From TrEMBL:
Residues spanning the membrane: none
Active-site residues per Swiss-Prot or TrEMBL entry: 56
Protein name: beta-N-acetylhexosaminidase
UniProt keyword RNA-binding, yes or no: no
Catalysed reaction equations from the record: Hydrolysis of terminal non-reducing N-acetyl-D-hexosamine residues in N-acetyl-beta-D-hexosaminides
Family affiliation: Belongs to the glycosyl hydrolase 20 family.
InterPro entries: Beta_hexosaminidase_sua/sub (IPR025705), GH (IPR017853), Glyco_hydro_20_cat (IPR015883)
Its EC number(s): 3.2.1.52
Keyword field: Glycoprotein, Glycosidase, Hydrolase, Signal
One cellular component term from this protein's GO annotations in UniProt: membrane
Domain Glycoside hydrolase family 20 catalytic per the UniProt entry, residue ranges: 9-246
GO biological process annotation, one example: glycosaminoglycan metabolic process
Length: 298
């Protein structure tokens, strides 16, 4: 079915992008297939985490199915559908000695979400992508461990427009708002934006301990092998430094100038090894360390 039927409001879409289709939690075959997939993935990847997804449920898709229509007509809810799905898959993942990672939507979505009783805190990690530090705070306040992938800071595909061929948001002449050129999560996330982000901002010391770390995301609507290196590097290196080593010196000052020199040199080393990393400064700056910084007043 077409993902956004003519005349439909966004809330009545059948998918957030083409093509359409959700797994049906009421169909027993769903779990036959899923258990095979989960088992095979767990064998291929021996890490102790298993990502169970569960983000961005589109109500219109489920509501288009006759069996779900009957379920709702008899008093069922979409959230109960998701609870059925989680309750039918999470125990199997745990039986394979995995900790389950879900996107934050499973608990925080405004329309379709599960009760926290379905998500045991000792076996569940929530990955956040919405509302910056606000949703990180909500997750750890609820007692869950968090992985931070804020779309405001860590989405590497942002700022390159949109995939829609007839997006009227581009039709802007002088002045006016263009919604970041049609990119839903624009603007482009510079390495400085990534480097400066504090994933534990506004958290107490105990809450910060529940933040396991962060993960950048590069979604593939407008990314393929021809742009992969440049989209990932060296911005991901900036994240690595700030999460592993911190982005402040012993006096609490952001060490942006030092980081620029390191990342710039590292970028050219990657290029020499065949990685097509994006430039962050002219080559002259590598050859003349410190000369591309501003002079700060004392």
């Amino acid at each position: 079915m077409f993902w956004l039927p003519a005349g439909s409001d966004w809330g009545d879409r059948l998918a957030s992008e083409p093509g359409t289709g959700h797994l049906n939690p009421l169909n027993p075959k769903t779990y036959q297939v899923l258990k095979n997939v989960i088992r095979d993935v767990s064998i291929l990847f021996p890490e102790t985490f298993y990502h169970g997804g569960a983000d961005e449920i589109v109500p219109g898709c489920w509501k288009a199915d006759p069996t779900i229509q009957s379920f709702i007509a008899n008093g069922g809810t979409l959230s109960q559908l998701l609870e059925t799905f989680v309750n039918s898959t999470l125990p199997y993942i745990l039986s394979l000695n995995r900790t389950v990672v879900y996107w934050e939507d499973v608990l925080l979505d405004g329309i379709v979400k599960v009760d926290s009783s379905f998500l045991p805190k000792e076996h569940t990690i929530l990955q956040t992508w919405n509302s910056g530090t606000n949703n990180t705070k909500r997750i750890v306040e609820a007692g869950y461990r968090a992985i931070v992938s804020s779309s405001d800071f860590y989405y590497l595909d942002c700022g390159h427009g949109d995939f829609l061929g007839n997006d009227s948001q581009y039709d802007q002449q002088a002045g006016g708002e263009s919604l970041n050129g049609g990119s839903w999560c624009g603007p482009f996330k510079t390495w400085q934006t990534i480097y400066d982000y504090d994933i534990t901002y506004g958290l107490s010391e105990d809450e910060a301990k529940l933040v396991l770390g962060g993960e950048v995301a590069l979604w593939s609507e407008q990314a393929d092998p021809t742009v992969l290196d440049a989209r990932i590097w060296p911005r991901t290196s900036a994240m690595a430094e700030t999460l592993w080593s911190g982005n402040r010196d012993e006096y609490g000052k952001k060490r942006s100038a030092e980081a620029t020199d390191r990342l710039n040199e590292w970028r050219y080393r990657m290029v020499s090894r065949g990685v097509k990393a994006e430039p962050i400064q002219p080559l002259w700056c590598v050859r003349n360390p410190g000369m591309c910084n501003a002079v700060e007043s004392s």
